[in-house]
Amino acid sequence: MRLHRRRGERGQALVEFCLLTPVLLLFVLLTVDVGRAYFQAVDAAGAARAGARMGIISDTSDIGSAVRAEPNTGIPDSVAAWGPEGPGQANGVCTSAGATCGDASGCTFGAFSGTQYACFSVRACQLSGGGDFGSCMSYGPWGMRPQDGSSNHGLQVLVVIKFSAVTPALSVIVPGGLLYLHQSAIAEELYF
User: How do residues 54-97 score in pLDDT, each as one tens digit?
Assistant: First the structure.
């Protein structure tokens, strides 16, 4: 038996292919960017944990060096990547409570300038329990680590990465194709 197609059905498959191909291509490109963003968010989380861990160890440890030099991170330890929080910069050295530790504004979008795509900031918090136990109740200003010898305090380390899309797909969904990935770690038991 021979099937006869109607005249209007001959190009239907081609039209469907032309309509679905851009959508499928968009999903593939988004998968690439989402995978890269996830990888960089994991890097930022590791850097934040490294800074919090260094803050727990002692009051003379450099939280900034620990954040920037996290061994598993793909963020280079350079001034170009970290900006004013980079190595050798005033805000990049966090060994004393009186000095600014990281970005003093808490890594807002305006903190990123030029080629800088990573930022970190530190702030102290007041713990709910007695001594050095409990959870953070209230936070101090960004850029300040806990005072030496004080009790009932904790520490929050924030790392932000400016993520630029490599495919045009993300630019369609997110204005400008820029995402700011925030990761933080809280150290609730500090021994100074």
Answer: 888 877 788 999 999 988 888 899 999 999 999 989 898 888 87
Q: CA-CA distance, 145 to 124, in Å (whole number)?
A: 5
Beta-strand ranges (E) seen in the chain are 118-127, 136-139, 153-164, 178-187
> Residue-wise over 53-69: b if at least 16 C-beta within 10 A, else e?
bbbbeebebbbbbbbbb
Amino acid at 58: S
Which residue, among 34, 186, 35, has the nearest Cα to 122 in the 3D structure?
186
Which residue bears the tokens 């808490």? 106
What strands, in cross-sheet order, belong to the sheet with 178-187?
A: 136-139, 118-127, 153-164, 178-187
| Residues paired with residue 180 on neighbouring β-strands, in sequence order | 162
Q: What would the pLDDT profile of 90-117 be if each residue is shown by its tens digit?
A: 898 888 877 889 999 999 998 898 889 9
* Distance separating alpha carbons of residues 77 and 118, to the nearest angstrom: 10
pTM (2 d.p.): 0.82
